[in-house]
Every structure is written in C-alpha cells, then in structure tokens.
C-alpha cells in the first residue's frame, strides 16, 4: 500500500490466474490451454502481417475480425464486439451493462473473475447455490436482479446447460441482461448465439484462448443486440481505442475462417476427454459430466489438496480451488495424449 494509491485500490481483491511455471518439463494441466497449436492458417496470416505496417495503428474497430465472426455465426457485424481477451470483454460488460444498482446473479461455484469485476466496478451480487449435482437451477434466477452471468459450460464444473433452459431464463428476465460466457462451448455445448435475434437481453461472450488455441494472442468476442454492443463500444472507446493489435486481428480472423482445423482439433480434445474420464473413473474418481476441455473430479477416499501436491511431485500440475464447496475436487485440463497418460500414470502410483 502507498499514499499515492486511489483509495479504492487497497480494497481490490484481484483475480489469481493459474500458475504459468518457468519449468518447461512440467505437464501443465492447470489452465485449460489447448494441447494442439493454433490453426496453421492463423500463424501464416500473422507472419504475413509482421511487417513495416506495424508503425501504423491497427483498425480501431477490428472490422476484419468482426466480419469473420459475423460470417461464421450468420449474424451482422453490428452484433459483434471484439476485445483483448474475453476477460476484457467481460469487464466492459460488467462496467457498461451491470452497474445499475441492482444485484448481479451468478452461481456460487463459477468463474472466480466475476466477483473480482463486481469489486472493481462496485456491483452488488448474489451467488446462488448450484444444486446437489452441481447443476444450475434456472428457476432460482427468477428474482429481482440487475443482470445474470454464468459460463456455459460452467467453470470449473464443466457442466453444460441446454438451450431450452437458457430460453426460460431469458423469458423470465426480460428487463435484465443475461450474459452467457461461452469460453468452453465448442467442446460439446450448444451456443446461444442463435437466440440473439430473438432476445435483445442476451449477450454471448466467447474466447479464442481455449478452442482456437490462441491464449497467447488475447482475443475475445461478444455477440448480442446492436444496442448491447453499442454500450460495449462506448466503454471501449472511453478506455482503449486499439485493444486488438494488427497481429491479433488477422490471426483471430484466420482462425475463425479455418473451420476444418478447428472442428478437427475440438473433436480430438473431446475424444481424449472421454478416454480420460473413463480412466479416472477406473481409478475410483467421481467425475462430473463435462462438455469442456477439462474435467472436474473428486476421489472419495483422498484429499484433493494432497492429491494436487502429490501430482506436482510427479511433475503434473492441475488446478485445486480452496473454496469450501469444491475443496475436494481437482480441475484437470485435457492435454495431449502423452500428457494425459503422464497424469494417469502419476495417479496410479499415488493411489
Ligand atoms: C478462460 C476463460 C475466460 C477468459 O478467456 P480469455 O479470453 O483468455 O480472457 C473467460 N471465462 C471463462 C469461464 C474462462 O474459463
């Protein structure tokens, strides 16, 4: 703390990202990165863009990327927002759509950045408990609120919610924005983007960090009614005119255009996930049904914190959350075949 800080800074409780270890040898299954590289076409597009034009500012609106997203999802570019990682897109949504004096609703077990943004922007929230099977009960969200947000599939549970439940939620809350954070949607969930034309209160965010394997590039998007997008644009243009650099705009656009590579790598992750789920179950774990590129699992006889520490001794890092309700779970990213095997071999020895 320092006397130079704005007073509110001392009360901020920042988000703590998963460890990015310096040791290259570790099997890193803790931050849900994609084991396959980005589309070769995305890499090529960025290499072409790496030239003297870098002296010029990028397109402040990232139109090239908005077009690619619009085409991919069959929406208009006016329904698309692009930002520097979906975390930034979410931050602008909290700032521009949820700061309205009424409480924001989200599940008690969810992405831990949401309460952090509430702290940053002074937004009250109510954390509504998931049911005993760790599923979202949409009925619970029919109460006065200033907005609703959750990931679908949820994080860190991996459990997906169906589109009819999401429609019920949208219909029950016509006066507040429902933000569906689809960071993991491409690994088995059904996107709500098709509902955007029907529900002006729906905003859907996605990231290129997981299914498109571009976590290092920092690109996220949102799709919603042009009025919602305009709020995000007004915040963005009051904060940073050029959130996406030249490389990010062309690389992300090319990643959306390379549908074949995208579908093939998503399917490979899904296939590996099913194998890992089978093997973990064989080792005595209970695994929540996952539609994501990670699984959330507990062992009825073993303490999760101790398991995570033992795995680390074996060179495998997974994510363990200290939050009471999920303290006996491990969140394990689906990695490359050898990484998954290293995890299973280590568990075999530990157990
Ligand atoms: C990874 C993740 C994000 C953030 O993605 P970035 O685009 O890398 O900022 C957002 N929401 C959830 C639920 C995530 O897991």
Global shape = globular
Structural class computed from helices and strand pairing: alpha/beta
Q: Which range best describes the helical content: under 10%, 10-25%, 25-40%, 40-55%, 55-70% or over 70%? A: 25-40%
Tell me the CATH architecture of the largest domain.
3-Layer(aba) Sandwich
CATH fold category name of the largest domain = Aspartate Aminotransferase, domain 2
Q: Tell me the major beta sheet.
A: 7 strands, mixed
Radius of gyration: 20 Å
Strand order of the biggest β-sheet: 2-8-7-6-5-3-4
Blueprint of the fold:
Blueprint: E1 27-28, H1 40-49, H2 63-73, E2 80-83, H3 86-97, E3 104-107, H4 113-121, E4 125-128, E5 147-151, H5 163-172, E6 178-181, E7 202-207, E8 220-224, H6 226-236, H7 246-257, H8 259-282, E9 286-287, E10 294-298, H9 304-313, E11 316-317, E12 330-333, H10 337-350
Helix pairs in contact: 1-7, 2-7, 3-4, 3-6
Task: Give an account of the 3D structure.
The chain starts with 26 loop residues before the first strand and ends with a helix. It is built from ten helices and twelve strands. Strand 9 (286-287) and strand 10 form a beta hairpin. The model has no long low-confidence stretch (mean pLDDT 97). The chain has helices at residues 40-49, 63-73, 86-97, 113-121, 163-172, 226-236, 246-257, 259-282, 304-313, 337-350; strands spanning 27-28, 80-83, 104-107, 125-128, 147-151, 178-181, 202-207, 220-224, 286-287, 294-298, 316-317, 330-333. Helices cover 35% and strands 13% of the residues. The protein is α/β, with parallel strands linked by helices. The protein folds into two domains: 7-37 and 260-350, Aspartate Aminotransferase, domain 1; 47-258, Type I PLP-dependent aspartate aminotransferase-like (Major domain) (Aspartate Aminotransferase, domain 2, 3-Layer(aba) Sandwich), CATH 3.40.640. Bound molecules: pyridoxal-5'-phosphate. Residues 85-87, 111, 151, 155, 181, 183, 207, 209, 215, 220 line the site of pyridoxal-5'-phosphate.
């Amino acid at each position: 703390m320092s006397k130079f800080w704005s007073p509110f800074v001392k009360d901020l409780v920042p988000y703590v990202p998963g460890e990015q270890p310096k040791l290259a040898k570790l099997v890193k299954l803790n931050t849900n990165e994609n084991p396959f590289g980005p589309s070769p076409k995305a890499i090529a597009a960025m290499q072409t863009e790496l030239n003297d034009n870098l002296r010029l500012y990028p397109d402040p609106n990232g139109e090239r990327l908005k077009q690619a997203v619009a085409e991919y999802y069959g929406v208009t570019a006016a329904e698309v927002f692009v930002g520097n990682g979906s975390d930034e897109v979410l931050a602008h949504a909290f700032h521009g759509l949820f700061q309205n004096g009424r409480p924001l609703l989200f599940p008690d077990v969810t992405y831990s950045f949401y309460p952090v943004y509430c702290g940053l922007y002074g937004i009250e929230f109510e954390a509504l408990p998931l049911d005993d099977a760790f599923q979202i009960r949409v009925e619970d969200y029919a109460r006065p609120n200033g907005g609703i947000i959750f990931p679908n599939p949820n994080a860190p549970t991996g459990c997906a919610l169906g589109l009819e439940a999401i429609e019920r939620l949208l219909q029950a809350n016509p006066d507040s924005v429902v933000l569906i954070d689809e960071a993991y949607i491409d690994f088995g969930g059904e996107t709500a983007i098709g509902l955007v034309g029907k529900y002006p209160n729906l905003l859907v965010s996605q990231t290129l960090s997981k299914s498109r394997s571009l976590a290092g590039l920092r690109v996220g998007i949102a799709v919603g009614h042009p009025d919602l997008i305009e709020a995000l644009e007004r915040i963005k243009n009051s904060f940073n005119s050029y959130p996406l650099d030249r490389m990010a705009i062309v690389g992300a656009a090319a990643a959306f255009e390379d549908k074949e590579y995208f579908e093939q790598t998503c399917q490979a992750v899904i296939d590996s996930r099913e194998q890992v789920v089978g093997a973990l179950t064989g080792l005595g774990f209970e695994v929540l049904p996952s539609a994501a590129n990670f699984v959330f699992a507990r062992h009825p006889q073993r303490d999760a914190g101790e398991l995570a520490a033992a795995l680390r001794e074996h060179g495998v890092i997974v994510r363990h959350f200290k939050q009471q309700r999920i303290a006996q779970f491990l969140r394990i990213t689906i990695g490359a075949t050898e990484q998954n095997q290293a995890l299973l071999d280590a568990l075999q020895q530990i157990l």
